[in-house]
Amino acid sequence: MSQQFPSQRFSIAPMLDWTDRHCRYFHRQLTQNTLLYTEMVTTGAIIHGKGDYLAYSEEEHPVALQLGGSDPAALAQCAQLAQARGYDEINLNVGCPSDRVQNGRFGACLMGEAALVADCVKAMRDAASIPVTVKTRIGIDDQDSYEFLCDFIGTVAQQGGCDTFIIHARKAWLSGLSPKENREIPPLDYPRVYQLKRDFPQLTLALNGGVKSLAEAQTHLQHIDGVMMGREAYQNPGLLGQVDRVLFGSEAPDADPIAVVRAMYPYIERELTQGTYLGHITRHMLGLFQGIPGARQWRRYLSENAHKPGADIEVVEKALSLVADKINVSA
């Protein structure tokens, strides 16, 4: 069945140190339609860094690059590079509250500089033809009125030409709270995001923050165009196996977790021959069998053995047997 909905309908949040290319390849085995995001990459890393910060596997599509930066020229250069590499979307981070992000003048502090954000978006849109989106919060510090949020969205939409925003339904405290605390302490305000959609019906708006189930996602989708899931998708990736059916209307069967692990084998073999450590891939797979008999043994065996020198596919196969045996017994 062909895809009925835009991929923005459901996406997995960009998460620093988590959503690397191994994670995305794994998530793609579970869901074909979900939009996947890179970790935030700074313009400086892309332009001046030694490594290839734009590397990904073709199988990851649709995949978006999240950029951190506030210099329109540098962002435009990175947008051109991203388009040349085949990314499906570029997203500007205006939501991360971490200190090191603020010191570089990007992330959530940019909410206070709507005209600059608009300039950044316009520069990227002029440089590349793929969609440019913005991920932001509902406010920062004491600038947390609904009017402030509307002014920010209106300015970036009108002056920058941005038509798609992902809204983390919490405000950010730029000082006094750690990034972790900023994900937990400021209260979630979903009605404010819903109101934004009513007031800006012409924009595509997705909601992020605290979404823990596909049932919750379905509820949000009655009010808004898209839902972005973060930690739950990472810690309990098995639920992604139902996304295509539940949220995208696919008639294909849900992804079977054991089959998903086996589908990873060619990728793992390829990566091992290129010098990747097994644990760098399997750390993203630990939560796959959550709620299934044998899940604890799977996690423990991988955790204890995947980082050993020379660890290879046999480690994964052994860990998988600990779950498969339990499933077969209980079946």
From TrEMBL:
The keyword rRNA processing appears for this protein: no
SUPFAM superfamilies: FMN-linked oxidoreductases
Catalytic activity reported: 5,6-dihydrouridine(20a) in tRNA + NAD(+) = uridine(20a) in tRNA + NADH + H(+); 5,6-dihydrouridine(20) in tRNA + NAD(+) = uridine(20) in tRNA + NADH + H(+); 5,6-dihydrouridine(20) in tRNA + NADP(+) = uridine(20) in tRNA + NADPH + H(+); 5,6-dihydrouridine(20a) in tRNA + NADP(+) = uridine(20a) in tRNA + NADPH + H(+)
Pfam family, one: Dus
Entry's transmembrane regions: none
Catalytic residues (UniProt): 96 (proton donor)
InterPro entries listed in its UniProt record: Aldolase_TIM, DUS-like_FMN-bd, DUS_fam, DusA, tRNA_hU_synthase_CS
Domain DUS-like FMN-binding: 12-321
Family to which the UniProt record says this protein belongs: Belongs to the dus family. Belongs to the Dus family. DusA subfamily.
Role played: Catalyzes the synthesis of 5,6-dihydrouridine (D), a modified base found in the D-loop of most tRNAs, via the reduction of the C5-C6 double bond in target uridines. Specifically modifies U20 and U20a in tRNAs.
Protein name as annotated: tRNA-dihydrouridine(20/20a) synthase
Species: Mixta tenebrionis
Species classification: Bacteria, Pseudomonadati, Pseudomonadota, Gammaproteobacteria, Enterobacterales
